[in-house]
Design goal:
The chain is α/β, with parallel strands linked by helices. 21% of the residues lie in helices and 37% in strands.
Length: 324
């Protein structure tokens, strides 16, 4: 089994696209330049009249909506808006571009590496604001999917030349992982490994473990996952004081979704953890992967502690699983 999972805005393990009607004067015959932008940033090329109206509201609602599963509001993507007449220079370097215009044709088109590389460029045109909004609503899931994918690849490129030796993980779980070398092993047990990376304001962690195939029941998945997480916290993840252990924060309902990762049923859960009998807390993202070949459930989870930072899942990134 292989799969890639994602990292959004400053933390990690979880476990993520861009838009056609632009003047030929924006193009040039040279090779596309290298794209540049902060992670999870979108350049939206749209005139102020549309941006300040219903079309702009639709774009913001779809692409800058709060990330689900966090106690504090943080946007899915950061949006930078530019009028069409100013569409030049650094605005064309973005990895993700949405170009919206009123024209005599309703059209949605995706162009790869149009102005830079790597890049997603989405062109949306319509005769009326209502028709533009219809195209946005219809194509938003595809756009977000492509944006997340390109951001994941970008994050992987950052650390690809500096990877951790994962022989210990391969031997224990029969999987190949690509993990940045900034992570260090802090605990290894029979069916459990914990890696941690120190950051300026705290730390990020990656834990890998496996549980029996029937540990998560389809009809009671969320409760079973919380119970599983809390048992792992009780067994292995403690604070500096006696009687402290990591548990799932009960005040916020976790965000739960289902997906398929390379033919394997997978549950994704995002929520908040806290240290019982302590003041530590932070976000987590958990992937429960049903490994049919080995008849087991493989769990990858990322969580972070950064008390002085606003934290989202955008930078909580799972490693790449090369094979199982």
């Amino acid at each position: 089994m292989g799969f890639i999972s994602v990292m959004n805005k400053t933390l990690f393990l979880w476990l993520l696209v861009s838009f056609m009607a632009v003047s030929c004067s924006f193009k040039d015959d040279k090779q596309p330049k290298e794209s540049s932008a902060a992670i999870n940033t979108i350049s939206v090329i749209i005139d102020d009249q549309l941006w300040n109206g219903e079309v702009g509201d639709s774009i913001r609602n779809k692409f800058a909506s709060p990330v689900l599963g966090l106690p504090q509001e943080e946007p899915l993507f950061t949006i930078n808006q530019y009028p069409v007449k100013l569409f030049e220079g650094f605005s064309t370097d973005s990895r993700n571009i949405i170009i919206v215009k009123k024209e005599n044709e309703n059209k949605f088109e995706f162009r790869k590496n149009e102005f830079a590389t790597p890049q997603n460029a989405f062109h949306i045109s319509g005769r009326t604001s209502f028709e533009i909004i219809e195209l946005l609503e219809k194509n938003a899931p595809e756009i977000i999917k492509k944006m997340r994918e390109i951001e994941i690849v970008h994050n992987q490129e950052i650390f690809k030349d500096s990877l951790l030796n994962t022989k210990k993980i391969r031997k224990k779980f029969n999987i190949d992982l690509l993990i940045p070398s900034k992570y260090e092993y802090v605990m290894r047990r029979r069916n459990f490994i914990w890696l941690k990376s120190e950051i300026v304001s705290g730390n990020t962690s990656l834990i890998i473990y496996q549980v029996p195939w029937n540990s998560i029941r389809p009809g009671n998945a969320v409760n079973d996952i919380i119970k599983m997480r809390d048992s792992i916290g009780k067994a292995y993840i403690h604070g500096s004081d006696a009687g402290t252990e990591m548990v799932t924060e009960a005040a916020y309902s976790p965000y739960f979704s289902k997906t398929i990762l390379f033919g394997n049923k997978t549950y994704e859960t995002r929520g908040t953890w806290q240290m019982k009998n302590d003041f530590m807390s932070g976000p987590f993202i958990n992937y429960v992967i049903f490994d049919k070949v080995h008849r087991r459930i493989l769990v990858l989870e990322g969580f972070c502690y950064a008390p002085s930072k606003a934290v989202s899942y955008t930078h909580l990134t799972l490693p790449t699983i090369c094979s199982v």
